[in-house]
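Design review, sub-item: ligand-bound model
Attendees: FS, YL, KQ
YL presented the inputs for the adenosine monophosphate complex:
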Amino acid sequence: MITLYNTMTRKKEEFVPINEGKVGMYTCGPTVYWYAHVGNLRSYIFADLLKRVLMYNGLKVKHVINVTDVGHLTSDADEGEDKLEKAAAKEGKTAKEISHFYFDAFKKDFASLNLIDPFKWVWASEHIKEQVDMVKVLEKKGFTYETTDGIYFDSSKFADYGKLSNKKIEGIEEGKRIAMGEKKNKTDFALWKFSKLEDKKQAFPSELRVKDTSLARSPSGHFRTKRQQEWDSPWGVGFPGWHIECSAMSSKYLGKQFDIHTGGIDNMPIHHENEIAQSESAWGKKPWVKTWMHGGFLNTKEGKMAKSSGKMKTISQLEEEGINPLAYRYFTYSAKYRKPLIWSDGGLASAVESYKRLKNIISGIENVRGINKKYLKEFEERINDDLDMPGAVAVLWKLVRDEKAEGKIGTIKKMDQVFGLELLKEDIVDVPSDVRELVEARKVARDEKDWVKSDELRDKLKGMGWVVKDSKEGYDLEKV
Ligand code: AMP
Ligand code: ZN
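KQ shared the predicted structure:
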């Protein structure tokens, strides 16, 4: 039995898939305008763990992750600039160049963390038709209204609005300042946004919404600002709101009702609330998603690690510091996925040491056939209890330290299907051939007692990022 904490019911529940043996799972993916930081990646490590636990239990998982390359504004609500357009303007590139560049970087991090690729990466800009079609359904059912800014979802027509975060609508209205614009209710949100006029003060009257966007002028005679990414729609030229992509694409690949939806906890109060409102209104199925799961933040001392703050760390920065990304993965297991985790150099350093020691001990274990049922059972109890990774890691350590335990290697191998830590993989450093040649030449120089040449070659190697240390057996080579 697997129990999972469902944000919707605020309880741990036994997980039973809608269709026996199969799980449909959707994860809110990256907005690809900048590098992902280790905090973002904590959310994907959590989703990967969940998937691995389900698979470990014999379930077939169909996992979809979206790639946001349009529509995500600098505020999660409907204000500010489109993050992709802003980055493209700043870097002097096309939006497509930006999204592909940062997606490739993201994929590299994803692979370094040994995260299993989803069934499909679904790109927002490649599913405009599906999003427009869904807005059409909502329009037909009477859930939308038009402003000069776009087509909005009328949250007062969806009685359950706020059920995920359990927020009282009145509470929101008294609290945070929300720009109303022409919105009828504070919790209304954009489904489709019109491309803006250059003259921002001027509304864009519908008679001027022409198909050839380059010809569109505001009443004052200004040309419209041409967005790089905009499409025609029944309501005028523009682009989809951020939330609609997840509802439209998940239904395309997973059906109009599916098992699990994941994301970071900051996605929950606005983005996921809006996803639910649109999907349950359009498809008429309740609940749209059976289990909602959210990953906790990776925090720095100043608060949540964020792309916009200067305090972010990336996987390639860790690698440059000689830290194996899997040691970071191991570090994230020190807290339960739902709890905040504090990022600190000291905390990470001790996880790096602990991960190295763990692998060292494991590499010294003699491979005796068989499985240790007692430890495996304990491990399974931990992972199936809402992914208790600190507990699962403790069982692993108990096993490796138990001198009398049998079947250690087979058991560790099974556990690693969930940990994803490559616990049995030897860390072999690949030495490029030109480096190898220089090292050999230096050895010859040393044998010939040509110390000047030998030192020269050593310095050359150092310049290439390799340190050679002489030892009794010959030499050790280390990458710095
Ligand atoms: P973004 O690329 O900004 O759309 O974010 C991608 C994912 O990272 C979302 O699911 C966020 O909830 C999550 N996320 C952002 N910051 C953090 C953080 N500091 N810790 C954990 N998850 C985060
Ligand atoms: Zn989403």
